[in-house]
Amino acid sequence: MHDWLIVGAGFAGSVLAERLATQRNETVLVIDKRDHIGGNAYDYHDAAGVLVHRYGPHIFHTNAAVVVEYLSRFTDWRPYEHRVLAQVDGQLVPIPINLDTVNRLYGLDLDPQGMEAFLAERREPVEEIKTSEDVVVSTVGRDLYEKFFQGYTRKQWGLDPSQLSRIVTARIPTRTNRDDRYFTDQFQQMPSDGYSAMFRRMLDHPNIHVELGTTWNETRDRPKARRLIFTGPIDEYFGHCYGHLPYRSLRFEHETRDLEWAQPVGVINFPQTEDYTRVTEYKHLTGQTHPKTSLTYEYPSPTGDPYYPIPREENQELYRKYRTAASRLDDVWFLGRLGTYQYLNMDQVVGQALATFDRINATRTPTAAARAAE
């Protein structure tokens, strides 16, 4: 009998396992249905010897010093500023939209003030911004919305932007300068040895036991711990008693090419053409030197492993039913992207896990309100 059972060996589960083992000297059993640790951030060397991410690109960026300090105990870092191009109207142009994007697409020579005037002429007033479409057309107008966002969103989510919460496109800025970085966070670096190496160090403790290829359903009827941390889909824990929470999945196609470089940047988006949404070339991200290169093509799917909670109000209403049920449980904690049904970046999951540990550590008998991680 362990002190804790943690379902899921990704960021949320691994951080809490490490904290509980090292800071409270408690025993932890971590299970994961996959054959590896690291969750969706898992990376490995493919047959050609190129370090790739099995589940698409994971770019680490954050403004949270506490997260950097914590993860730096388990990895060194290499600087990497992510840049993305989009294939639009037969050209590769920067995304997020910036000054160069507009000048190239429209054959203009605008300066920042000219671009602001250009956008101001095209913005559509929206009385109340509710949807992803509202966000974009009120910022850059209808033409850029259709070129960059409408088709990409339909592929990614299987829904029109007018059917999705504003949070989907509110994450993407528009710039009137030439800054072509995808992120502007103060800390933009990648684990120097990869994510999997970082997770192995995090879980390397005599109090932590890991069982891979083990599902929650196989374990729930054979209690192995006094308390539970659940990072899987919250509706799965409750047997979908209120209904299935909708998720969007992905299908990945990996290929290796016999050339040193295939793309000018790490990721190219395809909002207008192709069935896939983007193509990633990993050596840009990892800094690896290799005569060959490996790429991943991403195809959104309505079926498969749950990757993205679908941001619609009716889905949040359903989630709130599960959250209420979770708050009534003793010694069960839910967190992570699936456990709290929200789109979270890696640093946000780490921060959530560290905050959850602080709440656990504050009392041996946590209150119901504290247990439902937000």
Automatic annotation (TrEMBL):
**Gene Ontology molecular function:** flavin adenine dinucleotide binding; UDP-galactopyranose mutase activity
Give the main EC class: isomerase
Query: What is any one of the record's Gene Ontology cellular component terms?
Result: cytosol
Q: Spell out the family assignment given in the record's similarity comment.
A: Belongs to the UDP-galactopyranose/dTDP-fucopyranose mutase family.
**Required co-factor?**
FAD
Q: Which organism is it from?
A: Pseudotabrizicola algicola
List the EC numbers from the record: 5.4.99.9
Q: Which InterPro entries match?
A: UDP-GALP_mutase, UDP-GalPyranose_mutase_C
Q: What is this protein called?
A: UDP-galactopyranose mutase
Print the keywords alphabetically.
FAD, Flavoprotein, Isomerase
All copies of the UDP-galactopyranose mutase C-terminal domain together span: 147-343
Which intervals of the chain form a coiled coil? none
